[in-house]
Amino acid sequence: MPHHRLRRCHLTVPGSSAKMLEKSLAIDVDVIVIDLEDAVAPQEKSTARTLVADHLANATWQAPTLSVRINDVGSHHCFQDVIALIEAAGKGGRCPDTLILPKTQTVTDIKFLDQLLAQVESAYGIGEPTGIEALIEDAKGMININEIAAGSPRLEALIFGMGDFAASQQMPMLDIGHQGAYPGDLWHYPRSRLVMAARAHGLVPIDGPFADYKDTDGLIADSQTGKLMGLSGKWAIHPSQAPLISECFSPDQADVARARAQKAAYQAALKAGQGAVSVDGVMVDQATMKLIEPLLTQADLLKI
Description:
Elements: E1 9-14, H1 18-24, E2 31-35, H2 45-58, E3 65-69, H3 77-90, E4 98-101, H4 107-123, E5 131-136, H5 139-143, H6 145-149, E6 155-160, H7 162-168, H8 188-200, E7 204-207, H9 216-228, E8 233-236, H10 242-248, H11 253-271, E9 277-279, E10 282-284, H12 286-302
Parallel strand pairs: 1-2, 1-8, 2-3, 3-4, 4-5, 5-6, 6-7, 7-8
Antiparallel strand pairs: 9-10
Helix pairs in contact: 2-3, 3-4, 11-12
């Protein structure tokens, strides 16, 4: 798990709402994502930027990871977002753990943000580099995803933005995340492509939101499907979704116990000169160790 962050649930909070920002301070979730992009009206961009920078300088979040979704590189708000956020940290505040770059279409987008961050961090004496997460939201970004994934040492995660992606594909739908009458998993191909690109480059693949926050059964089913495909977590657009998503992407304690028993038996077998061992009727070998390693890493992070 790159950078040893828990990323089961990413709860988004509009950067223009002082009330919601205050509420986010005490929410128990792996990642708080403060949104300066889609959740903020164009005329409120500057006000939201100042509000978020002020919170970074003075507030403390319970969430272990704090991310900010800035505006895309095609917007004149992008460089202003980066400067304001890093400047707040340079004045004694908290630096965002990661910046989320929306509408990432090419590796050039990542390199631009990398260089801008390097310059601003240097100007304000920031020693710990801020990470980058690339939000893949359209057909062009998905086509270029392998090059994007290799774009910067700062890059930590790839995120699937299925709402804008559906729009770029001209899919007829109204609710982000819903599958409609499609006779299968509508998101299987883009999710699979994003997971493969992320894993090939040591990044974390994250799923986008499920907009109907009242449909808990749909949310759980969608989260479970994403987890089975190799996604490490999912965005939430409402606090009520956070515990459900976190539970879906948490390891089952029985599975953890079984994996630890398999690892112990395999290590004992190696000491005895054996490359494989039977544990409860299941053959355990080096391939098994690769399968259970992510599970055990997450269990250790969760201290379970």
